[in-house]
């Protein structure tokens, strides 16, 4: 037991940066109970070094763009107080399909272009906007009434969604990811309120300061996942 604990501690000393990969703030996400400033401050106090802000977004809602931009700007300003990395993502939901997709590598141009067509489906979204500077990760694929997307139109899967108010059927997501050799596996808290903080994290050797750096880490597979304080090897455990 002592040898195992020592090995884990040695591993964690190398992957020493904790990043929240799925977080929502208010008012950009009406379901959240955390302002951007409070969300960042609480994560900092809980020992996180970075967060990807992934507020809800849907096509046909151009007015949501400004709210996303304002929340992100506020979160980033707060993060600068603590030296935290605050990156810009979104959780995209198409009206025509059940399911959500975490998009990493977001900017204002993407949001404004992707907000136009309210009849777009995920395969079309992926084909139009996917590229080396952007990743599409399906969120909580087996939540009620949900189902996995075609693996041809996803870069990865949020196998471990730790939202405490939903049945995410993690075992089914893990089985699907293994069967289809999904290349990127992540864990996200799906953070909406303070009691959830600490449920999950991505652990990295270096702290990504830009979307490009985050995407490079995810593509490389050189990271660990953390669930309730316990490390996981993302590919060995799926």
Question: Any overview of this molecule?
Answer:
- With 238 residues, the chain is α/β, with parallel strands linked by helices.
- The chain has one domain: Metal-dependent hydrolases (TIM Barrel, Alpha-Beta Barrel).
- It is built from 7 helices and 10 strands.
- Strands 7-6-5-4-3-2-1-8-9-10 form a 10-stranded mixed beta sheet, sandwiched between helices.
- Strand 2, helix 3 and strand 3 form a beta-alpha-beta unit.
- The two termini are 24 Å apart.
CATH superfamily: Metal-dependent hydrolases
Structural class: alpha/beta
How many helices?
A: 7
| Number of strand elements | 10
Distance between the termini: 24 Å
Helicity, as a percent range: 25-40%
Query: Biggest sheet, in brief?
Result: 10 strands, mixed
CATH topology assignment: TIM Barrel
| Strand order of the biggest β-sheet | 7-6-5-4-3-2-1-8-9-10
Residue ranges: pLDDT <50 for 5 or more in a row?
none
Q: Which CATH class is shown?
A: Alpha Beta
Defining traits:
238 residues, 7 helices, alpha/beta, single chain
Short description:
The chain is α/β, with parallel strands linked by helices and 238 residues long.
């Amino acid at each position: 037991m002592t040898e195992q604990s020592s090995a884990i501690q040695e591993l964690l000393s190398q992957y020493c940066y904790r990043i929240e990969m799925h977080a929502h703030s208010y008012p950009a996400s009406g379901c959240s109970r955390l302002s951007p400033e409070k969300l960042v401050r609480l994560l900092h106090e809980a020992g996180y070094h970075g967060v990807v802000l992934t507020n809800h977004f849907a096509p046909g809602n151009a007015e949501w763009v400004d709210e996303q931009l304002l929340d992100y700007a506020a979160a980033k300003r707060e993060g600068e107080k603590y030296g935290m990395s605050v990156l810009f993502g979104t959780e995209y939901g198409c009206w025509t399909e059940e399911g959500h997709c975490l998009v990493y590598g977001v900017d204002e141009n993407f949001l404004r272009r992707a907000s136009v067509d309210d009849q777009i489906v995920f395969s079309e979204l992926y084909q139009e906007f996917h590229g080396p500077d952007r990743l599409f990760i399906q969120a909580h694929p087996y939540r009620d009434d949900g189902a996995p997307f075609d693996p041809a139109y996803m870069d990865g899967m949020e196998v471990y969604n730790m939202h405490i108010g939903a049945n995410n059927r993690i075992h089914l997501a893990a089985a699907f990811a293994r069967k289809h050799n999904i290349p990127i596996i992540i864990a996200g808290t799906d953070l909406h309120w303070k009691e959830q903080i600490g449920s999950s994290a991505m652990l990295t050797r270096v702290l990504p300061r830009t979307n490009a750096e985050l995407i490079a880490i995810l593509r490389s597979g050189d990271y660990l996942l953390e669930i309730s304080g316990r490390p996981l090897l993302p590919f060995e455990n799926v």
